[in-house]
Design a protein that fits this description.
The protein is built from 15 helices and eleven strands. It has 485 residues and is an alpha/beta fold. It folds into two domains: 330 residues, Amidase signature (AS) enzymes, CATH 3.90.1300.10; 79 residues, no CATH class. The structure holds glutamine. The site of glutamine has 13 residues, from loops.
């Protein structure tokens, strides 16, 4: 029996009819991870504890939640008690956390089985997974091509059918862009919907955890468990969490979808544009109609993000100094030397670049010109969204300007080339809004993603619009041919 490429809903049915046990399912998932080792999706496997937890589910012999007995993979940015958590950085390559992140804990409390920790861009800084200390992750659709980033390992593992779903985090696009490049569905919830406690911080005012899965319905299943207030995270929202499956089947008649005028789609690959036009037609057939909206400040999103995110990262990453945990340099003369050498040897180039940019943006004399200015522009972008959502329900854009690209082909000379990967995704992080990427076809045999951005706390609307699209198309069912791996 193969469980590869099965959705949570399908696996749930197999477990409920006892055609497979949680232990067998976990073993098969671990075997698939081993079989496709060359994809390099995983940094650390969780064989022993995974098997033990699956066995307890079997012994319990009752289904307490949709996720009971379902194998999942966790981005290696979530702290997991007793299980190495590296953030794909040398500086944390030996770190074993004493506690588990709330988002993961909730998924595990619902009975899911963590089979391993997924590879990612170092400290979630990147769009191609090429900044990982543990090496590149392959896109299952094409060997030697990036899976996107920073949640590249999670996206690759789901796309290859090793696990039905995985966790990711999204600071500027890191769930949606890899989901798009790997042909799967990825949701960034509203800022504060999911607790950030136990997530290793990159840019705290932007970071948000969310699911990557084969379908919008499966994303809803994960979001149902991950969401909710957490007293350990002061930015987690104290608002009620709806059942995200409840209204997922609502017809889309009358749904108003906004197209952002300022995004000039005619600059994109004609095939990426064509997929976008096709999906507009699909939504029209499903009863939605389109309205042009203007978000005058949205073109400032990328520079705004690249002032705020590095500023926050320079502050957050100051805790990695080689003293209490993580990598410590040897042969150091004094404390200062220990700091300098541990950080110089422990961080990769992209992380160092961000720390330098951020320190500069926060320094006396430049703070007003960069950090403060960026915060002001951020507010203008948020206001633009508030205004747009007075006349539309959701906004629609491509997820990424292009499809997956070859290892080493972008950003080597000029990092801004890679920063532009997030042209369409960054603004919703700045505004704190939920957004989803769903597969909507292929260009040159590589998947293309469609992004829907929702109003504050309206993940239900995004999941509904995505689910109905998936009920009326089969792009999400396409599977990569893995014979090269
Ligand atoms: N690609 C963006 C960056 O490099 C976003 C990363 C993310 O969302 N974690 O910062």
């Amino acid at each position: 029996m193969t469980i590869q490429f099965k959705s949570i809903t399908e696996l749930r049915a197999m477990l409920d009819t006892k055609s497979i046990s949680a232990s067998e399912l976990t073993q098969e998932s671990l075997q698939l991870a081993q079989k496709y080792k060359e994809l390099n999706c995983f940094v650390t496997m969780n064989e022993e504890l995974g098997a033990k937890n699956a066995n307890s589910i079997d012994l319990e012999n009752k289904t307490t939640s949709m996720l009971s007995g379902i194998p999942l993979a966790q981005k290696d940015l979530f702290c997991t008690e007793g299980l190495r958590t590296t953030c794909s950085s040398k500086i944390l390559s030996n770190f074993i956390p004493p506690y588990t992140a709330t988002a993961v804990k909730k998924l595990e409390d619902a009975g899911s089985i963590t089979i391993g920790k997924t590879n990612m861009d170092e400290f979630a800084m990147g769009s191609s997974n090429e900044t990982s200390f543990f090496g590149n992750v392959h896109n299952p659709w094409k060997k030697g091509y990036v899976p996107g980033g920073s949640s590249g390992g999670s996206a690759s593992a789901v796309s290859a059918g090793i696990v039905p779903a995985a966790t990711g985090t999204d600071t500027g696009g890191s769930i949606r862009q890899p989901a798009a490049h790997c042909g799967i569905t990825g949701l960034k919830p509203t800022y504060g919907r999911v607790s950030r406690w136990g997530m290793i911080a990159f840019a705290s005012s932007l970071d948000q955890a969310g699911p990557l899965a084969r379908t919008a319905e499966d994303c809803a299943i994960l979001l149902n468990e991950m969401s909710g207030h957490d007293s350990k995270d002061t930015t987690s929202l104290n608002s009620s969490v709806p059942d995200f499956l409840e209204n997922i089947n609502q017809p889309l008649d009358g749904l108003k979808i906004g197209i952002i005028k300022e995004f000039n789609l005619s600059d994109l690959d004609p095939e990426v544009q064509a997929r976008f036009e096709d999906s507009k037609k699909t939504y029209e057939k499903l009863g939605a109609h389109f309205v042009d909206v203007s978000l005058p400040n949205i073109s400032a999103s990328v520079p705004t993000y690249y002032s705020i995110a590095p500023a926050e990262c320079s502050s957050n990453l100051s805790r990695f100094d080689g003293v209490r945990f993580g990598y410590r340099a040897e042969d150091t003369d004094d404390l200062n030397d220990l700091y300098i050498k541990s950080r110089s040897e422990g961080f990769g180039d992209e992380v160092k670049r961000r720390v330098l940019i951020g320190t500069y943006a926060l320094s006396a004399g430049y703070y007003d010109a960069y950090y403060k200015k960026a915060q002001q522009v951020r507010r203008l972008i948020k206001n633009d969204f508030d205004h747009a959502f007075q006349s539309v329900d959701v906004l629609m854009t491509p997820t990424s300007p292009n499809t997956a690209f070859k290892f080493g082909s972008k950003g080597a000379q000029n990092p801004v080339e890679l920063y532009l990967e997030d042209l369409f995704t960054i603004s919703s992080n700045l505004a704190g809004l939920p957004a989803i990427s769903i597969p909507h076809g292929q260009v040159n045999s590589l998947p293309v993603g469609l992004q829907l951005i929702g109003n504050f706390l309206r993940e239900d609307q995004l999941l509904n619009a995505s689910h109905i699209f998936q009920q009326n198309s089969d792009f999400h069912l396409a599977q990569p041919n893995l014979e090269d791996f």
